[in-house]
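fold-stage: in
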Amino acid sequence: MIKTIFISTCLLIAVIIAATGNTFGQYYIGDIYLDQREVFDTTQTDWFFASGFVNSLHTTTKPYIIEDEILFNSGDKLNISLIEETERNLRRTGLFTDVRITLDSVGSDIYDVNITARERWTTQPSILLGSGGGETVFGGRIEELNLLGHGVSVMAEGLKRTENDIGWQGAGRVYFRRFLRSDFVFNAGIISNRFRTTQTLSIFEPYRTLDAEYSYGLSGLNSFGNDFLFRSSDSTELISFKERKLSGWFSRAWLDVDRVFITVLAGYDEVDRYNESFRQAFDNTGKILVSFSSVSQDFLTVRRINSYLTDDLVLGGYGSATLGKVFPIGSRGESLYYIGGQGEKSHYDGDLYLYGRLKAASGFVSSFAKYTYQEFFGVGFYRLSDNFLLASRIRQQSVWNWPANRQLILDNDAGLRGYEANQLSGDNRIISNLELRMFTDFEFWIFSFSSALFYDMGTVWNKNTQIFDARFHNSAGIGLRFHNNKLTGETSIFRIDFAYNFDNRKLGGIIFTTNQLFSAFGSHDYKLPQLFGTGFDYE
């Protein structure tokens, strides 16, 4: 009898919690306090004699930038899920190196909320120096991620590239995470060198929160010039082109835990390649795609996976099915029906993490398949201790019935360290990486240090070749990582890798670049419908 009463009581409590949206009892939010910490402050071990002067050179984030991300108000019922989501959203802005939200009981049923956000250094003048695959880049970049404290990102860059004798290249970008304090994202960019120029523009409302109901937007691309086609290790051909793309979409979502989505996307792609033998899949076509998708998400915070800073690890799964129609624009396009799908899943038990994603799609002309594509992507890690982590990645891409130009490159940029740039290319590709990451406890001022032992393996092969006939290439080596704990994102890590090329049986080069080669965990997010397999590596 007692056991039955106990079980019934537990079930009743569970039902009440579910019905109240994970509400913390019947408690309420009192006052909300915001504590913005400077880049350097006296509570941190990196404080030094000139910290005050350095802080004066940094514009503190305007309070409204933080307030726009807060998903609760004074007087609301205390909902732990909304507090945790607010903390994640603030980290996702990239404006803070650390965000913490704590509760303080001030009465029998009232909790004050304390939001602590530590500023990151957002003004980044950089001297850029990179080397890998026998190619080098050098130049400069000025980037401000929080212009005058208003959360606007601007960037200007100039690079001298030896790859393919590209020479000087310029790039610029402006990004509004909340355009005019609305829910809209505005993003515009340009990149140009003597071979090609690409201009992009997009404005859209994303799914900002777990209970957002709508997402919609427009994006466009204008690109022209010449692209590189690598016929062999010593033969390169230039492809002249002019391309204009435009797409728009509308999406509706339901539920706030295991979310479901219906999305309609319309696109337009007009291309002139001046030589039809270089035609790529879905050139000069319009498309209407309808996707049905769902996502399940749980969230954990982790450290010492990719860096020393706190990351949000997303667990769960994602799946989507896409139906569509592709129709010609002018006389050079094609007409076909399209079907595609993807699914992904993750697992984590505290030491072992696994993430896998499978994509597959095909067009159909009558009953004949055309432009069939399949891809698998997986990452994972095993935590040996607080200081040692085994991380791995694998990506495989294959096509069938693909009567169009296609190029995937296998080199340092793709993940095969120690091999010359653009020397290995094909229609299909497999690349895998294994790293033993070693995180030290040593800190010097604002810097932390880690290292890695790595092994890379990969191959590329053409559509008329069997995978069993493809030659696999291997490299191994050791690397050093320098972490700037006052930054977030890829610029917070400087990477040096020494790679041994097993084909040539010699040191394949020293690689200088930023960020880890790959993230050891994935993410489950809503995705727009797309035509799979259209990626083309130009350089």
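fold-stage: in (second)
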Amino acid sequence: MTVKKPLSMFLLATTTLAAGATAAIAAMEEAGVFKPVVLRDRPLADYQGATGAVDIRDASDYEDNYADDIGDGVFFAPGVTVNGLDIQEPRLSIRGFAVGNSGQRSNVIVLRDGARLTDVHGTTNASEIDLLSTREINIVRGVANLREGGGNLGGVVNLVSRTGRDAPAGLSARLDGGSTIDGKAGGQGHISFAGAASNMDYYAGVTGVYENGWRDNNRRTSQQFHGNIGFQLRDNLSTRVFVDVANSKTELAGGLTLAQLEEDAQRPTPPITLGPLFPGGPIINLVDGARADDFARDIREGRIANETKFSLLWHDFTVGGHYTRREIESPQIDFVGFIDQEGSEWGARLEAERSLRFFGGDALYRFGGEWVDGSQTSDIFDNENSDPGAAISETDQKSKLINAFVEGVYKPLRRLAVEVGAKFIKVERRLTDFADDDIDTRSFTGVAARGGARFDVSDKLQFYASASRAYEPPSMEELTAGNPTFLNDLEEQDSFTLEAGLRGKIGNWIGFNVAYYDTDVENEIISLAEPSSFISGALYGSADKTTHKGVEAGVDLHLFPGAMANRGAALTLRNVYNYASHRIVDGGFEFGDIDGNRIAGLPVHHYRGEIRYDVKDAWFVAANVQLAGGAYFADHENTVSVPTDPIVGFSAGYRLNDQIEVFASGENLFDSNYVAGVSPVLTINIDEDRIFTPGARATVYGGLKYRF
């Protein structure tokens, strides 16, 4: 009785407040005094078909800030974290998967307009992502659907491009520039041209970036082009062609030991020396550092893709295809050498769906599949002053992916939807060592499946729950880690997830999306050693059993809506909170006695938030913060903690007229010496393992947008 009464009073007060706030906003809007700010998080109408954890990040999340990598695009995405391992080297992690990806591993797949940016070998190059030509970012956490998901543990990130239908018509330009507190300048420029006619539209955008990173040996230049043209040929027939070109040159500073980070975080990875063993004796250079080896990664990429939609025989079809050509040159530090890769891939996909009435309820079924085939030469040479020297290995890598899925949704009741589906996955890896014409092959075949239900409590509130299985083979990089001339014996990864969530809105003042997940994994591939370390040992290993449990929450609060409306303003507090309890249940023989330990590389508690004050369409000012807390280890033995500090930023903007906007943004305003990324290891050598990447110092940028 003592519990029910306060709860009833709270619900009554909440309902009264929501009704009053909504009425106040409606009155001001009708009077023309106030143009309300729509809560930008979690538009419920976009989730009507989903029985799992999905997220939609609109470009408004980041376009008012200096946004130069995918990390800026997912700042407000629950369940998603970014491991910043160097300038323009963010590694996406969803629900803790791929958090230890010291290389470009594939636990999170990145698509652009439904076609793969993550290549068929399992590598994602973040420098190929251009946020300024992206309209929205769709995120599938876990196996929230089988069209994109199921073939990897973490989830899928799909970048949806701007088109002539949604981009500002005509010519638009944007220029950003700024500097760190110690005078390291950087900036980017973007020009776009868009238009639409009755049956066609077009968009083209060019982005150029120059950043003189705040650390030494950390400069970046890149040029990116994205264009697309769409044709509405008939009422039930449309097609769109996408073209991407990227040219990126990045100097990499590399990681530091914890002591080096505290002493001088600006330095690149230093050499490792031995001696003198006696007074006046020689000093032996064991390992060159990032500056001496000119540690860098240069990428040239071209891509063309198509998506065609039509209706035939009572079904709605989507047919797509892509071709990508990519060249990578990367002088590495230490014993790795000079990596030279060149290759291409072809891909095609087909989806079909049909809606119908079935036993008195609405039903929908869909089916489809994907085929991707790619090959690349992957050669490693001695690194001789950033030029390739003698050949260490010369190989050809081939990968093929085939999958097929079927799923159905049935609504026996108006507010209840039930979904079931399965997906067949087959991956082939083939490696040819040109030194002796030796051919090594691995083939992986598995099934992903899911069942879920969604109950629409009201038009503004949804509850969902699901059970799913994911299946992910090791990537080519994981299979060749440690020795590039043969495929190692890493096994495929299987996961089983139970998930439940609640999303919706209360009036016009709260929008929320909260989910709980519990995932059991067999053979999860985790990092064992630092890739650039001179210490011998495998880079990756398979833990027999792990578990990923957590809560991911996003909440938008429209504060004091009535009072703000009287001023023609809005005050919005946006919050993202992730709780992660990820542990090694049974490490197996190669991991030693670490059963029960936390998987390294991720804090237990992680919060990101922003408070923003808008005055109509005239101007805004906002402050944001990132906080990490709880256990956060650098090693799976859980002996060394990663230092954490609050990171504070700001943004502000002013609209001069319909054509001109100016804005400013700042990062790390208190100039904290913080860790932006860590490459987890099994056993850490605190004096030698250079696995910590420092975050940038205090930085301020200014920008100008102009529409011609």
